[in-house]
Amino acid sequence: VTIDRQSICDVMAFALDHSECAVDISSTIVRSFHVGDSRESKRVHRHVPAMAYVARLFVVSDILHNVGRMSYNAMRDKVLSVLHAWGQWSLFPPPYLIGLNATFLQKSREVEEDMDVVCAAMDADTLALNDERLKRKCRHAGLVAAGSKHDMYRRLYMLKKFTSVGDGRRQDEIDDEDGNVDGEPMEEDEDDIDGVPLDDDIDGVPLDGDDDVDGEPMDMADD
Known about the structure:
The chain has helices spanning 5-17, 22-33, 39-46, 50-88, 94-105, 115-121, 124-127, 131-140, 149-162. The chain is built from 9 helices and no strands. The termini are far apart. Residues 166-193 have low confidence and may be disordered. By secondary structure, it is mostly helical. Helix 1 crosses helix 4 and helix 5 packs across helix 9 (149-162). InterPro entries: ENTH_VHS (IPR008942), SR-CTD_assoc_factor (IPR051485). Residues 168-223 are annotated as: Disordered.
């Protein structure tokens, strides 16, 4: 393996595709770094270019990163599947399950919101709750009911943001969206909706003249 990007990707892909042989692959990678005590082993490693060890280190780093990401995604999908099944079976009230989803999917920055922002978003009734009632409110909403009042306020604020979008998407997923829902601008011009101007009469004949509606003049001689 070399430090070439494609070479490292090929080795990483091979390792992931043969994950059932993870023990053997790991042993092979470890041996590639290990310098034994024997004279033959030292002779072999003495002729290995330094960049080859760097390339192997890149391979180890990429494998660890991708395996960790795959494990995280698999775990997340399984947990969300369980929560979805609970909703289908009506085991818990919908608001409680929404709170569990929000708690599981929350980002670390969402529990570190500035308290001025959090308190400004809370209604007066929530801010007036004592500790016991606030904990009960969090439990009923599927949130962790522990810590200080500020901690629970932050969780309620996080839940409010999580449920602020009617179609179920998180607010930060649509912050960058702009324009019409289909992506086309709503700029209007003077034309009709079908693209034809409405400057003329509907039948195509102007009504500027003094003629009667039946086309015959109304000027008649006196009897």
